[in-house]
Design brief:
The chain is an alpha/beta fold. It folds into 3 domains: 84 residues, Arc Repressor Mutant, subunit A (Orthogonal Bundle); 98 residues, Periplasmic binding protein-like II (D-Maltodextrin-Binding Protein, domain 2), CATH 3.40.190; 105 residues, 3-Layer(aba) Sandwich (D-Maltodextrin-Binding Protein, domain 2). Helices cover 45% and strands 24% of the residues. The protein contains 11 helices and 11 strands. The strands form 3 sheets. Strands 3, 4, 5, 6, 9, 10 and 11 form a 7-stranded mixed beta sheet that branches. Strands 1-2 form a two-stranded antiparallel sheet. It has a two-stranded parallel sheet with strand order 7-8. A hairpin with a 2-residue loop joins strand 1 and strand 2. Belongs to the LysR transcriptional regulatory family. This is HTH-type transcriptional regulator YwbI. Keywords: DNA-binding, Transcription, Transcription regulation. It holds the Pfam family LysR_substrate.
Length: 295
């Protein structure tokens, strides 16, 4: 039994004629007669009394009609909903964003996407990049923005930011007059870092160890503006991306480039290689890739 057999059966029952049903469905009468005959054979019961050119339902036909109408209507509704999804008239996307990334890069993207696809809803989850990556991997999120690199075998990815970390020191700090500072000169400094669930936490510690010292971390936060505020108050130094540093209050903070080897900061959008991505999510990836590439 397939949906076409039920559609033909319901239409024949409604019109009381194979020929009228065939005409309305734009098929030949022999085709509809054969389909309904095959359905009767499969069910082991006659569905119609055939009286010349007219037909009427048997008791088995009446029983089937009550169920078949619901099935055909549900199938029609499903087809309509799928068409809406394909045409992006509706849909839902779960996206993970690290807090410092969202405010700087995504308001314009989300706004323009919503304007183009007003029926597609976006639920944003703000977490550190490590948690975002984990939630994309486990399926809690469809798409995530993370600090690269990630495991290429697990994720599709495109890069949209390639920057460096810069040094933040309070005004009046002994390094404030330097044009650039090598990382190993920070061995005696106290650091203000992002929390452990942020990718930059591990990245900075790893690079400091490579430079020959274990950084002394005195404060951790999930907010870049709080980190910069603590630097301004003289509580420590920090390393933040160029994008964030451009918005600093330079009257209280001095931003200094790191000398090579610098610490790269690359952002990418990821989604699982082995998981279905909805029509809406696929369009979001394409839309964001084009728009972010132009910024």
């Amino acid at each position: 039994m397939d949906i076409r057999q039920l559609q033909y059966f319901v239409q024949a029952a409604r019109l009381g004629s194979f020929s009228e049903a065939a005409r309305s469905l734009y098929i030949t009468q022999p085709t509809i007669s054969k389909m309904i005959h095959n359905l009767e054979v499969e069910l082991g019961a006659d569905l119609f009394y055939r009286e010349g050119k007219s037909i009427r339902l048997t008791d088995a036909g009446e029983t089937l009609l009550a169920k078949a109408q619901n099935i055909v209507e549900s199938f029609g509704s499903l087809s309509s909903e799928l068409d809406s999804l394909r045409q992006l008239k509706q849909g839902h996307i779960r996206i993970g964003l690290p807090p410092m990334v969202g405010a700087n890069f995504f308001p314009a993207v989300i706004g323009q996407f919503h304007k183009k696809y007003p029926q597609v809803t976006i639920r944003l989850h703000e977490d550190g990049a490590k948690k975002v990556e984990n939630d994309v991997e486990t399926g809690l999120l469809d798409i995530g923005v993370v600090v690269l690199p990630v495991q290429a075998a697990k994720f599709h990815c495109f890069t949209f930011v390639q920057e460096k970390l810069e040094l933040l020191v309070p005004s009046g700090h002994h390094l404030a007059g330097e044009r650039q500072v090598a990382l190993d000169r920070l061995a005696a400094e106290e650091f203000v870092l992002f929390r452990e669930d942020f990718a930059l936490h591990d990245r900075i510690i790893t690079e400091c160890v490579k430079a020959g010292f274990q950084p002394k971390v005195v404060y951790e936060s999930s907010q870049w503006d709080l980190i910069s505020g603590m630097v301004a108050a003289g509580l420590g130094i920090a390393l933040l991306p160029e994008t964030i540093c451009r918005d600093m209050d330079r009257s209280r903070i001095t931003v200094i480039p790191l000398a090579e080897p610098y610490i790269p900061w690359e952002l990418g959008m990821i989604w699982r290689r082995d998981r279905y991505l909805s029509f809406a999510a696929r369009e979001w990836v394409s839309f964001a890739k084009e728009l972010l590439g132009s910024l």
